[in-house]
Design a protein that fits this description.
- This protein has 193 residues and is α+β, with helices and mostly antiparallel strands.
- 54% of the residues lie in helices and 19% in strands.
- The protein contains six helices and seven strands, in the order ααβαββαββααββ.
- Strands 2-4-5-7-6 form a five-stranded mixed β-sheet. A two-stranded antiparallel sheet has the order 1-3.
- A hairpin with a 1-residue loop joins β4 and β5.
């Protein structure tokens, strides 16, 4: 068997290798916040290090997923999930005051963690790149609709204009799992399979 020297394999390897020192940084920051009485502003700096290292770990996870998809080595662990709960999870992450959820969900079998992160990333991209204070999320069975989607943000949310890693990874993941992500008439439709 020939050695895999593809770019996707290189990205996967880099993600794997960066996780160990990143886990060390995160672990020590967490230990400091729990065990040492730090004075201001050091307490705030350690909290920022902890939050940033967690955010970096999530970015590495996203890069790793897309690299495995591109290399044909993505093997999702499939479990049942409710689409309404996926939408509510996005609202919880991004703020219920910013994401209004309604509708009726359906049970799907999917990569729950990946799709959960993906739905949140798509909703966040709609807010961020649309310059919006809030969005409506309506769940219609296995389809999650997000509106409004501005004309200027549609290409970013769909991963066609690469300015949002979370959205780009989410679109590729959902497509790989047999779903689809489309924008029509100012509404993002996330069809989950």
């Amino acid at each position: 068997m020939r050695n895999d020297t593809s770019f996707a394999r290189l990205v996967s390897l880099a993600c794997h290798d960066v996780r160990t020192p990143l886990a060390t940084v995160h672990g020590f920051a967490k230990t400091l916040t729990r065990t040492v009485e730090l004075e201001a502003p050091a307490d705030r700096y350690v909290e920022m290090i902890e939050a940033a290292s967690l955010q970096m770990a999530e970015l590495l996870d996203e890069l790793s997923v897309v690299a495995r998809i591109e290399a044909g080595r993505y093997d999702p662990g499939l479990r049942e999930a409710d689409t309404l709960e996926l939408a509510r999870s996005a609202a919880e992450r991004l703020g219920a005051d910013r994401v209004k959820v309604s509708g009726e969900g359906a049970t799907i079998t999917t990569d729950v963690e990946g799709v959960d992160r993906g739905v949140s990333a798509l909703v966040q991209a709609a807010l961020r790149h649309g310059g919006l204070d809030e969005v409506d999320v309506v769940v219609r069975g296995s389809v999650i609709e997000v509106s409004p989607i501005t004309d200027s943000s549609a290409a970013v949310v769909l991963g066609r204009e690469l300015r949002d890693l979370g959205a780009a990874v989410a679109v590729r993941l959902i497509d790989h799992l047999g779903g689809a992500v489309e924008v029509e008439d100012g509404t993002l439709a996330i069809a989950l399979a």
